[in-house]
Amino acid sequence: MGRLVVVSNRVPSSSDRHHPAGGLAVALQDALRRGESLWFGWSGKQVAEEEKHSRTVSQEQVENVTYATIDLTHSEFDGFYQKYSNGILWPLCHYRAGLMDFIRRDREIYLDVNKFYARKLSDLLRPDDIIWVHDYHLFPFAQALRNLGVKNKIGFFLHIPFPPWSLMKSLPSAVSLLKNMQAYDVIGLQTEDDARNMNDGFMQCGFGPRAQAFPIGIDPDSFARQAEAGEHDAEVHRLKASLRGRPLVIGVDRLDYSKGLPERFLGYEAFLKRFPEHKGKVMYLQITPVSRGNVADYKALKRDLDETAGRINGMYGDFDWTPIRYLTQSVPRHLLAGFYRLADAALVTPLRDGMNLVAKEFVAAQKEHNPGSLILSRFAGAAAEMEDALLVNPHDPEEISDALHRALIMPKAERLARGKKLRESVWRVTASSWARDFLEELSKDRPE
Predict the structure, then answer these.
(1) b vs e for 281-316, b when ≥16 Cβ sit within 10 Å of the residue's Cβ?
(2) In this structure, are residues 260 and 394 in contact, taking their beta carbons and an 8 Å threshold?
(3) Can you spell out the DSSP letters for 87-129?
(4) Could you list the active site residues?
(5) Tens digits of per-residue pLDDT, 152-209?
(6) Ordered structural domains, the chain, with CATH
């Protein structure tokens, strides 16, 4: 087999290339280590329009991986990334078609950037390379490569949900998008439901079904080691001391409307109202780093969360107790591992999520002899594998409140039984097995 060529919109920054800190870099770590590899994508930098035709690919070698990056112009970043990828495709794939703000010019820029990426990558390819393309920014990328004469095997993996055709067809030129995807040899999604939705879309457009489920995981052994080491971290000790013996409920999500954070806060408020015996006796820590903070929808979401947290803290708090500790800055991965291990329960309640690896990280971080409880949305991709979590509908505040109460009073024997099954599921499907299974499928010979 030739090189593995990974293509994603963002490439790990120089500081993360030696020690991956999270996300796709961690998921692909094992696959990239198996031999010579190339990772291609956007540099994260923007250049002036007058530099558009003078851009060259920058390359950096780190061990066996070559990182190849290219800049975008300001107008490409705006149309391709901000407006079409994140303003159209992201809300649509998360079942929020009403948030789309479609402008045809943005779609044209989206297609042009995919063609631009394809031209730049094609110069770097070898005949036996296997190409693995990632996520919604690059739906039409394989077709752009095929138009340049590239015959290599090309796989695609979508990390976010895919909606049913009845919703997907609200996208102008949805048929064209699905037609472009026929250029991929293998198409992977997180869950059977998502694969079924995409295949139904293909068939509605006159194509054969070709999407398959390849659920993604984490490196549970590594994360468990981080969590165990985190117990001795000074900041974890600070958090533990501040609890004063009270149980800790934790939530960790970047700021996004798909994460169900306003609904979660209302669920926690219902918990305090319906189970007053917990008032002053539990601590809820919500860590929500701000992302896309310059986008109007995200500004409005942050304002809503700020106001809701303030109202709940004002109504239910006391001079020595704050119901919600709400942080909007990021926390290093090793500290999060320690915080998870300390927590008695985790709230993972997205309205829609491709997988949600926070749920798996929380389970991996737990003490095997005394695990905390996982409260998980039925609409997270992880729910299909983690049926022993306390599954909730995030649209129902009372259901969230019932699950919180149950988690905090759950007998140890039940926590151990649930924790054992959850651990088995997290150790069964890992980042390594996900990459192996996908690349094995992509490596198979297929009829011309």
Answers:
(1) ebbbbbbbeeebeeeebbeebbeebeebbeebbeeb
(2) yes
(3) IIIHHHHTT-GGG----HHHHHHHHHHHHHHHHHHHTT--TT-
(4) 159, 353
(5) 999 999 999 999 999 999 999 999 999 999 999 999 999 999 999 999 999 999 999 9
(6) 4-214 (3.40.50.2000), 220-428 (3.40.50.2000)
